[in-house]
Each structure stands twice: as structure tokens, then as C-alpha cells.
Design goal:
It is a single chain. With 136 residues, the chain is of the alpha+beta class. The protein has three helices and six strands, in the order αβββαββαβ.
């Protein structure tokens, strides 16, 4: 299934049962990292939890990428992705995902001061990058 017709299966505002249901509908691989749905090295969508990305509802929306080795690589792929990406958001672990629409990557930073400001928030671990999104 191409990304251009994913809306046949998913509607904006529709609560999804789980990350895995969204992943299956988009034809993504069953494996980490969990903040993106991917097929091979291609990012098909972002799947973010509000508790780990508390500024996801801001304008611009922010994706906070963790510092684990696998996350570093995928965070860089997302940051330099030139096409739009569907965004799915969950309020927390074990909660369903809601499609928020399609977003453009408009920038990113790995500035230590910017990362430290976000890491200071309760429940947020070490970050490697912030990716900024704007609704298409």
C-alpha cells in the first residue's frame, strides 16, 4: 500500500486499538524503534506518545528523540526526511493512537542547551535530537 492511499484505511480523529494495528494497516515492519513505523529503512509514519513528547501538540510540533543507539539513527532519518509523514498520537503507554494528519519536517536540532531544557521535564530521559513538524 502506498502512503498516498493510507486514508482509505485510517481517518483523522479515529482512535486506533494499538500501535500494531496502525503498523499492520500501513504495512510496516514489526520492530523497533516504536516512534516510527517503517518498512526497511523507509519511514512510513510517526507514532508518538504525548507523555514522552509533551510538545507534540505545539506549533511547531516537536518529536523528542531518545539517545539510545537505535533511536539516534532513526531520529536522524526522520530529521532529514524530505517528504510529508502521517502522525499518530497516543496519550500514553497502552493507549490507542489517533491519526492527526500529515506533517512536514521543518527543522531539527541537536543543540545541547535545547536538549537539556527538554530533558529537565519529569519523566523525560536523555535526548539526542528534536525534530520540528508542521501540519500540512
Amino acid at each position: 500500500m502506498s502512503l498516498t492511499n493510507h486514508r482509505r484505511f485510517l481517518r483523522v480523529g479515529q482512535a486506533m486499538a494499538s500501535y500494531h494495528e496502525v503498523r499492520k494497516q500501513l504495512g510496516g515492519d514489526d520492530g523497533p524503534p516504536w516512534f516510527v513505523i517503517h518498512r526497511g529503512d523507509v519511514i512510513l509514519a510517526c507514532t508518538l506518545r504525548e507523555d514522552l513528547n509533551p510538545t507534540i501538540n505545539s506549533n511547531p510540533a516537536e518529536v523528542w528523540v531518545g539517545a539510545d543507539e537505535t533511536l539516534l539513527e532513526w531520529g536522524k532519518r526522520l530529521a532529514f526526511k524530505t517528504v510529508e509523514v502521517p502522525l499518530f498520537v497516543s496519550s500514553g503507554q497502552g493507549m490507542g493512537y489517533e491519526e492527526r494528519g500529515t506533517y512536514k519536517i521543518i527543522g531539527n536540532t541537536d543543540d545541547a542547551t535545547e536538549l537539556a531544557a527538554r530533558e529537565a521535564q519529569p519523566g523525560i530521559g536523555k535526548l539526542s535530537r528534536i525534530v520540528f513538524l508542521k501540519k500540512s
